[in-house]
Write a structure and sequence with these properties.
five-stranded mixed beta sheet; about 400 residues; 13 helices; single chain
């Protein structure tokens, strides 16, 4: 595993701070936000791209690709991933994103308008392309198998695990570097989302702004980061004596086919994705102990997701521990599902359900066990991670305990 997040620049620090309930939401420092109605975000702090690549290479990449490569290199080191030349054609990447190099588009547009066409970067197109996260990871790690780059809004990160499992199960790859990345902190999307009334405006209390499932929630907090996991076939893992965090048991996808931003109020589309994941994993609802929820902290999403969990898990829903990593890292958009998947896999590995911080006032319409305020040590045989995106795209991935 590898992670670059607002609460840690490694998977280890991410998990440590997630379990401790540490918030990574702060005042925006990347740019002057004084004129914006929202002045807070989940920024990645103290990230030095020079620790992961040379200056020339870094200048030809967008920040979203920087974060992806950094997380992937950590994951490869954590896994002891050493590929022989003959293995490289069967080693793939699946790095999802929501907006790719959107920041570069905004900045180069200003260059064009203010300084003229001759000053626009010759590398703009390959820098901003959403597939460049996956391709740069492949180039840096020498992966010559498929390079997949799903763009599914806030469900994107979960799609990468669906693709990883499909590539391995279908025999097209033996190992997949899978995850999600996002780096779109910029005044333009923050202004747009603020005008949509999607963002929290708790500017004076950043650490308390992301409040999934709380009665006083008012919107999500914009964030950035990347999370990457090495997924490999059981055969390969056993042969090399790999340390296994969890088994990627199944994944399910669906589409609400309903609205460009709003989820189906009854949660039926999201429930379909969860049910598909359970079916793909050959598991029953009672085999799941924990869910890393999408849990954005918006009034509509949290109620819809609660209803979806109840529909998919029936009577067992009330026995599940459900929590939202977004309460600490914010909403990482295209990387959110990858962060949730990492939280679910680590919950299985450590038998700990991370908390939902800032859940201080219960909402009558959100009446599941959301692990409020403090982490919980408990048996976690199986864990699911949810992700739902604009356009109605839904994803769910399931991890279960693996005994070598």
């Amino acid at each position: 595993m590898g992670a670059i997040t607002p609460i840690g620049l490694s998977a280890h620090d991410f998990w440590k701070n997630l379990v401790a309930g540490e918030s990574g939401i702060t005042k925006i420092t990347r740019f002057d936000a004084s004129d914006l109605p929202v002045k807070i975000a989940g920024e990645v702090k103290d990230f030095n791209v020079g620790d992961f690549m040379d200056t020339k290479g870094a200048r030809r990449m967008s920040r979203f690709a920087h974060l992806a490569v950094a997380a992937a290199k950590e994951a490869a080191a954590d896994a002891g991933l050493e590929l022989e030349d003959a293995e490289r054609p069967r080693a793939a990447s699946a790095i999802a994103t929501g907006s790719g190099g959107a920041i570069d588009t905004m900045e180069e547009s200003q260059t064009l308008l203010n300084r003229g066409p001759q000053r626009v970067s010759a590398f703009y197109v390959p820098i901003m392309a959403p597939n460049m996260g996956a391709c740069q990871v492949s180039m840096h790690l020498g992966l010559r198998g498929p390079a997949m780059a799903s763009v599914a809004a806030c469900a994107s990160g979960l799609y990468s695990f669906f693709e990883a499992k499909h590539l391995i199960d279908s025999g097209l790859a033996d190992v997949v570097v899978a995850g999600g990345t996002e780096a779109a902190l910029h005044p333009l999307p923050i202004a747009a989302l603020a005008n949509m009334k999607a963002l929290s405006r708790r500017n004076d209390e950043p650490e308390r702004a992301s409040r999934p499932f709380d009665a006083n929630r008012e919107g999500f907090v914009f964030g950035e980061g990347a999370a990457v996991m090495i997924v490999e076939s059981e055969k390969r893992a056993r042969e090399r004596g790999a340390r296994v965090y969890a088994e990627l048991a199944g994944a399910g996808l669906s589409c609400d086919a309903y609205h460009i931003t709003a989820p189906l109020e009854d949660g039926s589309g999201a429930a379909q994705a969860m049910e598909s994941a359970l079916q793909a994993a050959g598991m029953s609802p009672t085999d799941i102990d924990y869910i890393a929820a999408h849990g954005t902290g918006t009034p509509m999403n949290d109620v819809s997701e609660t209803r979806a969990i109840k529909e998919a898990f029936g009577e067992h829903a009330g026995k599940l521990a459900v929590s939202s990593p977004k309460s600490m890292v914010g909403h990482l958009l295209g990387a959110a599902g990858a962060v949730g998947g990492m939280a679910a896999a680590l919950a299985v590995y450590h038998d700990i359900a991370p908390p939902t911080i800032n859940l201080e006032t219960p909402d009558d319409d959100c009446d599941l066990d959301y692990v409020p305020l403090k982490a919980r040590e408990m048996p976690v045989r199986g864990a699911a991670a949810n992700g739902f995106g604009f356009g109605g795209q839904n994803g769910c991935v399931i991890f279960r305990k693996y005994d070598v």
